[in-house]
């Protein structure tokens, strides 16, 4: 795939449309090793793409937000739970391709975070959170809380924030995940504030 095709693939948040971009870009030839990993990560995340709401990456994000809201767990228990979620995301699979694999996974996680934050624009999000009558600034503040749970909250609750940077794959995988989510939120926040004229929240 060309860089432009990959940009289109990772900027689209609807699974069926992403799949269409991928299939059009790779039609009539064998996949190269990078494309094979992209396909494996997509299938790991969405399974049967016809089930539009099925997204294991979003399920992991909800799991992490739940962990963030809980009282701190025993570190061994917490790390075991997070490791299982990292396996679901495909970190071990991506690591087989080194830095290139981690970059592809980072972009897939970023896409999932984009999909989540985009849903925060919907009225259903406000209804679920009881924010129907809330102002735009209040809604932005609530979305920021979600981002904080995903970037720092679950790390603190599970003791990941106390791992040294050289502690191996858990620290490295955590950095990939949180960097991807933070980048997604930063873009969403800027766009939301411009679209809605929000100055402070």
Structural class: mainly alpha
Average predicted confidence as pLDDT: 86
Shape, principal axes of CA atoms: globular
Assembly type of the chains comes to: single chain
Distance between the termini: 41 Å
Pattern of helices and strands? HHHHHHHHHH
Low-confidence runs: none
List the helices and strands and how they pair.
Blueprint: H1 3-11, H2 15-26, H3 33-46, H4 56-69, H5 75-89, H6 91-95, H7 98-119, H8 123-128, H9 136-158, H10 169-196
Helix pairs in contact: 1-2, 2-3, 3-7, 4-5, 4-9, 7-10, 9-10
Could you name the key traits of this structure?
mainly alpha, 201 residues, single chain
How would you describe this structure to a colleague?
This protein is mainly alpha-helical. The chain has one domain. The chain is 74% helix and 0% strand. It contains ten helices and no strands. The chain has helices at 3-11, 15-26, 33-46, 56-69, 75-89, 91-95, 98-119, 123-128, 136-158, 169-196. The longest helix has 28 residues, at 169-196. It starts with a helix and ends in a 5-residue tail after the last helix. The model has no long low-confidence stretch (mean pLDDT 86).
